[in-house]
Amino acid sequence: MNALKQSLPEVIRTGRDKAIHAGLKGHTRAPSDFASLKAGLALFTDFARQCGAITRAEAEQFLSETSAALWRLIEEQDEHQASQDEVTRFLALLSSALSSGRCHVIDLEGGEKGIPSGNMSYVRNFGWIQDARGDYEPQGMLIGWMDKNEDTLYLDGDAAHAVVVKYAGDQGGNFSLGQRTLILRIYERGLLTRVTKDKEKIVYSVQKPLTGSNKRRYALRLSALIDAG
User: pTM (2 decimals)?
Assistant: First the structure.
């Protein structure tokens, strides 16, 4: 046991360095985590072999397969975390696109034109500006309809995603997360105020008759978008 205590840290350090050089993706602790878990698997496998539960060939195959699975799991977790971060970025980009006049939303309680109610700064944040006569006019593409009583922006997913992709590109960056994955991550963050069910399957889009067509919308939490601005 004392020998193991002395040798294990070096085994983990060596495994960590190999993982780094092999390009393991993930947070800064990922190579160390991978090396520690792999070292534990190696000890377990060696114990099973010495007990006669498995042969040497079976032990080598088991360690190879479990190490590969562990590597994939860590990289998939990194991809998942990255896409979660993209939700925050999507909201920030969409908020910025609205306030800069690239797109606009309609207030379902905003009268005939759907002008958001509030002071000039608030209205501008949703893509409306005053013309020379003092009348508010929408700017850019329509991307959603807001219902402040429900804290919901009924989002046109295609339009909003297209606006964000173009806006990010115009800023010298990019937004590569696809719309389907984006909506899934938004749902996982608890930022959809409504979903529907088709038998046992969750449907992320909903019907909102007042949005001008029978097309389904995504019920994005309005306050999340406001907070991102």
Answer: 0.64
